[in-house]
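agent> Task received from the user: take the single chain below, predict its 3D structure, and emit structure tokens. No templates, no multimer pairing.
agent> Plan: (1) validate residues, (2) run structure prediction, (3) serialize to tokens, (4) report one or two observations.
agent> Step 1 OK, no nonstandard residues flagged.
tool_call: predict_structure(input=
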Amino acid sequence: EDAGSNQSFSVAFLNEEGDGVVISSLYSREKVSVYAQPIRKGESEYPLSDEEKEAIEKALNQKP
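)
tool_result: status=success, residues=64
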């Protein structure tokens, strides 16, 4: 209930092969947490939030 809002975000930085990192910030009234997860070929070995999946999808579909 206290987490989220428009101050939280996820962003993915990927190369042409889909390798890189997704970084997420989770804002709450008590604290701000920042997470980074490695991405290989557009996939993570860790569970991803819907926002992280969306950030990866957008990064994969970017035109150079």
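agent> Step 4: summary for the user.
The first strand starts at residue 9 and ends at 14.
agent> Done.
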